[in-house]
Amino acid sequence: MTHHLPNAKIPAPCIINTGVVVNKLDMRRLLADLGRVRYVYTYQGKLQSEGEGDVMEVFANPQRSTLVANHALYLNICSFDYLELKQSSEKETCFDLVQEEVCLRLIPLSTPFQERQQRCLNVSDIEVMMEQVLSAKWDAEFDDDNSDLL
């Protein structure tokens, strides 16, 4: 005997600051905005490693590893079953990436807004440098053209 559910639409989850995220796309979206983080790696609740680093890449590929080395984090969401959002007693947001008895906790050291501002500043700096380089090149070409006339 089969039972059919009515065509009821179940709303998508709404998670505000705390909760469990199992959808890989949602996990990726949350982690993609991270920049500099403090990380704590535990196995069976025992500290294995901790430090600070920059999230360099967030990806989903069952054939690749999550890597943490040289203050850089390359996060493969396929390495984890779920992401748990928590807030510490100091009101810090914590991202716990969990796989069985392994937990990689990420504590952001900057906000997405600060990261975007930094990226925009870097783009602005590059644009200014490019203008200076082009201006110097045109000046040099102009000087070369004028030296031919002498």
Instruction: Kindly report the average pLDDT value.
Output: 85
Write the H/E string, N to C: EHEEEEEEEH
> Number of DSSP helices?
2
Radius of gyration of CA atoms, rounded to a whole number: 24 Å
What percentage of the residues does DSSP assign to strands (E)? 35-45%
Widest beta sheet: strand line-up: 1-6-7-8-2-3-5-4
Low-confidence stretches: none
**Helical percent range?**
25-40%
The biggest beta sheet is recorded as: 8 strands, mixed
Number of strands: 8
Q: Specify the overall morphology.
A: elongated
What does this structure look like?
The chain is α+β, with helices and mostly antiparallel strands. It has two domains: 19-110; 111-150. It is 31% helix and 35% strand. The protein is built from two helices and eight strands, in the order E-H-E-E-E-E-E-E-E-H. The protein has helices at residues 24-32, 112-149, and strands at 19-21, 36-43, 46-59, 67-69, 72-76, 82-87, 93-99, 102-108. An eight-stranded mixed β-sheet has the order 1-6-7-8-2-3-5-4, with helices on one face. A hairpin with a 2-residue loop joins strand 2 (36-43) and strand 3 (46-59). The protein is elongated, with a radius of gyration of 24 Å. The chain starts with 18 loop residues before the first strand and ends with a helix.
Q: Main traits of this protein?
A:
150 residues; alpha+beta; 2 domains; 8-stranded mixed sheet; 2 helices; 8 strands
Task: Outline the secondary-structure elements.
Elements: E1 19-21, H1 24-32, E2 36-43, E3 46-59, E4 67-69, E5 72-76, E6 82-87, E7 93-99, E8 102-108, H2 112-149
Parallel strand pairs: 3-5
Antiparallel strand pairs: 1-6, 2-3, 2-8, 4-5, 6-7, 7-8
